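> forwarded from #structure-qc
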């Protein structure tokens, strides 16, 4: 899992903020995976692989993410 941020040369607005407000969680993007499942016929192959891995390791399902947003 990787949390992206602005490159320093593209973050002029961010650099003007105080440190406490410089990086706001709502502005960060989470990159969790990019490898698809092997089934070439499946839709959302990357999503399915990520959900499979999260389920195997942590017992999480897609419904867990729906309830986490509320």
């Amino acid at each position: 899992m990787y949390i992206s941020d602005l490159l320093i040369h593209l973050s002029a607005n961010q650099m003007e903020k105080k440190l406490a407000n410089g990086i706001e969680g709502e502005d960060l993007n989470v990159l969790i995976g990019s490898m698809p499942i092997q089934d070439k016929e499946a839709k959302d192959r990357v999503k399915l692989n990520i959900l499979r891995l999260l389920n195997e390791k942590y017992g999480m399902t897609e419904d867990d993410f729906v309830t986490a947003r509320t």
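QC bot note: The mean pLDDT is 79. The radius of gyration is 17 Å.
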